[in-house]
Amino acid sequence: MSADEHPPATERPGDVRVPVLADVALLAGVSQQTVSRVVRGSPSVARRTRERVEAAIAELGYRPNVAARTLVTRRSHRIGVIAADASLYGAAVTLSGIQQACRDAGYAVSLVVLSDLEAASIQRALEELRAQYVDGAIAVVPQDASQDALREADIAFPYVLAPGLDGAGAADAYWAEVAAARAATDHLLDLGHATVHHVAGPGDWAESRARSTGWRTALVERLRFVPRPVRGDWSAASGYAAVGELPLDSVTALFVANDHMALGVLSALAARGLRVPGDVSVVGYDDVPDASFYAPPLTTVHQDFAEIGRRCVQVLLGRLHDRVVEPGPVSPRLVVRDSTAAPGTLLAVQPG
Questions:
Q1: What is the signed CA dihedral for 49, 60, 73, 5, rounded to 10 degrees?
Q2: What are the entry keywords (predicted)?
Q3: Which of 125, 212, 279, 344 has CA atoms 20 to 30 A from the CA of 151?
């Protein structure tokens, strides 16, 4: 008898009847082995038979005995993923990379999205994953508070923090972002801009701090004036609002910490009658799929978030099998488009 199989449950007075696999088999009129194949997602079950078994599972409220299977194999082949905010482009693509890499390695994924960053929410998420017998977990929680809560939590399985990789290339990942932001700033200085203003991300994100550090380093090393950065929250609306805090009479170049805020910046500049790049050059960060369709197409830093997710899975699987895996950082790169030019560049007028 496999770990999934059980004889029909016996009922004692006062017991709550919990359906087992044998009950599903009896209701569907198939063998327990067939039910087990359906539960495991085996393609060897005929469509009509699968539908009959799935209907019986739904009617009975049957849940596979993951605990029994795990006791037999000592592995659930399930990876837990905790995400603080899956709506942002970087987080969403990182999650997609994690899910694909897990599938390629033969692991299922259990995703828990946090409602807030309180320590109690982190602990509840960990308990939910523990109840599903995950072999390990990946946490896509870039904010300092959520990372601190994870480090202080009682965790019964190995885990990895994304995108810093929790010690496996963490410093390299940080400095790769610093270098990319520095290259973006250098690009604007090389075009002839006297200095570069900055719309930064939230102060409690390591990525935001890395990008600000790269911007500031480039200016300091070239003995340029370092303006006061204006802070946004990654959203286009915050980018739009940030323009109102800038001394636009002296701004000729802007480095914006992500593309969504850059979209808001472009809109706010246009609303004030300022041309990009004729009056102000703008560089973003992330290279979202729509960046090449912004007006004008956005010069930005390309970040391979899916590869970050894949590398997190490599690190975690290495820990599960007692191997040290250090895949190194994913190196961002500058993609030059039409939103940057020398100061005062006149745009060519296209014939109508």
A1: -70
A2: DNA-binding, Transcription, Transcription regulation
A3: 212
The neighbour count for residue 217, using CB atoms within 10 Å, is: 17
C-alpha span between 4 and 59 (Å, rounded): 19
With a pLDDT cut of 90, the percent of the chain lying above it is 49
Counting DSSP H helices and E strands in the chain, the numbers are 12, 10
Per the CB < 8 A criterion, the answer to whether 189 and 222 are in contact is yes
Rounded-to-integer distance, Cα 178 and Cα 52, Å: 56
The helix-helix angle for 21-28 and 32-40 (nearest 10°) equals: 110
Q: Residue 351: what residue type?
A: P
> 0.70 exceeded by the pTM?
yes
**C-beta separation of 340 from 299 below 8 A:** yes
Q: Which residues contact 259 (CB under 8 A, 6 or more apart)?
A: 89, 284, 285, 286, 287, 288, 290, 291, 294, 298, 300
Half-sphere exposure of 139 (CA within 13 A, CB side): 28
Which domains are delineated in the chain? 1-74 (1.10.260.40), 76-162 (3.40.50.2300), 171-303 (3.40.50.2300)
Least confident residue range of 6-20, 171-185, 219-233, 321-335: 6-20
The candidate with the shortest Cα–Cα distance to 143, out of 164, 125, 129, is 164
